[in-house]
Amino acid sequence: MKITYLGHASLGIETNGKHIIVDPFISANELAKHIDIQTLKADYILLTHAHQDHVLDVETIAQRTGATVICNAEMSYYYGNKGLKVIGMNTGGKFEFDGISVRSTIAFHSSSFADGSYGGNPNGYVLEANGKRIYIAGDTSLTYEMKLIPETIGKLDLAVFPVGDHFTMGFEDACFAADFVQCNKVLGYHLDTFPPIKIDHQIAKDYFSSKGKELVLLEIGSDLGV
Ligand code: NI
Ligand code: MN
């Protein structure tokens, strides 16, 4: 599984010959000017919630690529009404496609579209393919529900956590979250895009190191193999 950081909370995941884009907010991200959404490959677009900083480029990418949008039920009605291919899920559910499985998990946050319409409940996802398992938390606070993941689903190879604070948990809580999900390797996202979520990378990484964990913070456009 190859995970490319596309800035903010946007990820490109390549596995089983399929391309999945998570929460595309790229074209308006000043830090991601070198990423061209017109050249991104997508078979699926996986969405954690409806906030603009997670869905801005969904329609542009889905219309060009014909990608199927996987999201919660309410968001699936919204995008279905716009003519996109959608798979609507809800918390706790699992969906399998092309040898890849996604399970929708609990996230503590909110979810509304830019026009104020209801975006359902926010979610995270556990994604599995080729014997590898990653957890993408989505925008969330630290929550005890995270403990369910290793107990009921199994061992993770990577956890992707927001670390920017203010709108989500910060890096200290993300370090607790790593304990909750029993995974010592964390990819941090949802940082630096806006002034309230700018963080000092070295302080965050050192904090993780001091707790015996690794925080990976990728340059936008670079990738990580799992
Ligand atoms: Ni949000
Ligand atoms: Mn967000």
Kindly describe this structure.
With 226 residues, the chain is an alpha/beta fold. 21% of the residues lie in helices and 29% in strands. It is built from six helices and 14 strands. The strands form two sheets. The protein has a seven-stranded mixed β-sheet, covered by helices on one side. The chain has a seven-stranded mixed β-sheet with strand order 7-8-9-10-11-12-13. A hairpin with a 2-residue loop joins strand 2 and strand 3. The longest helix has 10 residues, at 171-180. The chain is globular and about 50 Å long. The chain starts with a strand and ends with a strand. 47% of the residues are buried. The protein binds nickel (II) ion and manganese (II) ion.
Give the ordered list of helices and strands: EEEEHHEHEEEEEHEHEHEE
Helix content: 10-25%
Small ligands present: nickel (II) ion, manganese (II) ion
SSE class:
alpha/beta
Counting DSSP H or I runs of 4 or more residues, the number of helices is 6
Q: What labels describe this entry?
A:
single chain, 226 residues, alpha/beta, seven-stranded mixed sheet, 6 helices, binds nickel (II) ion, binds manganese (II) ion
